[in-house]
Fold this sequence. Notes:
By secondary structure, the protein is mostly helical. The chain has one domain (2-445): Amino acid/polyamine transporter I, CATH 1.20.1740.
Amino acid sequence: MENKKEKRGQFTSKLGFVLAASGSAVGLGNLWRFPFTAGANGGGAFVLVYFVILFIIGFTLMLGELSMGRATMLSPIGAYRKLKSKYAWIGVLGVAAGFLILSFYSVIGGWVIRYLVKAVSGDFNVTDGAVLGELFTDFIQNPLEPLVYHGIFMALTVLIVIGGVAKGIERYSKIMMPSLFVMLILLMIRSLTLPGAMEGVKFLLIPDFSKINAEVILAAMGQVFFSLSLGMGTMITYGSYLDKEQNLISSAMEIPLIDTIVALVAGLVILPAVFSFGFNPEGGPGLLFITLPAVFSQMPLGGFFAVMFFILVLFAALTSSISILEVVVSYAVDERGWSRKFSTVTLAAVIFVMGIPSSLGQGLWSHVRFFGRDILDNVDFLASNVFLPLGGLLMCLFIGWVWGVDKAIDEVTNHGKLSFPLKGFWTVMIKYVAPIGILFVFAQATGLLEL
Length: 451
Ligand code: PHE
């Protein structure tokens, strides 16, 4: 136990923790996944549903996960086991989701590194959308090159996780997160002042209610879980790094707030540019990589901003990928007794291999499609829209009905030292509203219940 604590380390300040936890939340989910998922699911309709679901599960589950983590000082499987041993399998589900998510996350992380290299070599002087689209497709369809970058991204993740998360990540998060934010605001201003940008704003913010259907609702729920890093125990793990004096309640509000602002701002960078340059908002996973270079080409010092921006995107992706790998690694360390170094390297290698089909599915294996989606989209769908919400549902039921809301509240109030005015609200949310909400979306999506 002692030994484990030492390896786990602790965040040294509240600000450091909130930034590191926001670092886990803010990542490709906000910058890459949110804009294209919103684009593919009706824009404003999706954003509206996203907000409703965020209200129901954002704070509720964030606080739930943090409370379990800090109460047990363990990562997911250990945490469930310690609180009620026969429920450790819920943690197993989270670890499985971690494997799936990191496998494709690292592929996209690799694309980011490729684009950073492009930016450094000044490749962004192209304004023609069609050409930018082609450059991107050519790259991802190549069988080998994206795999090399996928490997580089995974290697970077490994290096950070081996070094131990707390100090390094905390320190870098404090600098990089605010820089990312400033950069996004600058880009947003550029995007919003492009000709025809308002079409993009309208598309993102004005809901067309007729577009809301079961598919959109499921996509929005998956996006909330993915973006907030909820449902697989990431926040249990991060909560386990916290000392007993920290205020979990305010953190559980701040992290979703920061994450949501970044997602919206990213949407206001990408979608106005999509409309201004005449791209298709339903353009899918390539949206970030095709529209942003177009925006940079229209900016003074665009080449410089491009480099800065892709560095920050890479950093945002890494502060998330390490939190995913950390969940998987701490499972091997806690449950299998492997050394940290061995677990990190071995598991990352396994996940790298698991990511290969997602990468090849863009080109060589693009004929391999299930449910109208390519391999990467299917892995993403399974992990984000099924595993994470299922993990979240089980966690609500576990906290609400097995571990007990009173014990969770005792933990988050630091044993009665902090006041928790939202106590009644949170109790009702975690016991009833959130689980019923998640079940409802699942029922919709599987066609059991017609809206
Ligand atoms: N939230 C991260 C992002 O938005 C991804 C993530 C998902 C991280 C699940 C941890 C767990 O990029």
